[in-house]
């Protein structure tokens, strides 16, 4: 019964309808639904300090009456984290779902110096990434080091999949970081072949994008000897095999220079091809 009531409560509360339902339901019904929302119930069981009690009270008041989310957005819940940051870091999907549904809660708040979305990317929580992707207030790319670049660099495949799926409308797949590396560059650098595959399947991917040194993802994959990544890039229809970087080297030159013999053999059959499928 409690689970059933909780599901009903979840279905009623969301950024798009939380205000509207106050005008359509009686006060007693609204209070009942608020108090049976799974995320709020979890918070009421876990809070123990005076400040945590005050934060939970503010959340309940926001659900019932609107207002300003001062404590929710600014006060520390635990270890210097706001309650949203703490919930994301702890992987508590029910609490995150509650918080992102409440108008006034800042879904982009920074922490050392990560946003909640970036914390979700690091923890590889696709469910939370989906919640943020569907949140109208989310700013997917607040910094040069975008969540997609972070996920591609550290090999968080599930995070890359979730970002490409749920944040697609607000995502620049070819965004470059401070050294002009894209997500594809970073995935190629560390040999994350599944991530490379996902990125190559994404519409508009710039396979020949150059970093600060004029290197493409193919240059980098060849230099580091990632055979599977090189094969994926060579199979892409618009890859330019013979491009030279700022030092005048091609991908084949880098493979030879670094003694990546398997990559060298693979590239030698493509060096005269400008673009292929």
Automatic annotation (TrEMBL):
Family annotation (Gene3D superfamilies): Ankyrin repeat-containing domain
GO cellular component: nucleus
SUPFAM superfamilies: Ankyrin repeat
Record keywords, A-Z: ANK repeat, Mitochondrion, Repeat
ANK repeat extents: 179-201, 213-246
Highest taxon in the source lineage: Eukaryota
Pfam assignment, any one: Ank_2
PANTHER family associated with the record: ANK_REP_REGION DOMAIN-CONTAINING PROTEIN (PTHR24201), ANKYRIN-1-LIKE-RELATED (PTHR24201:SF16)
Full protein name: Uncharacterized protein
Species of provenance: Plasmodiophora brassicae (Clubroot disease agent)
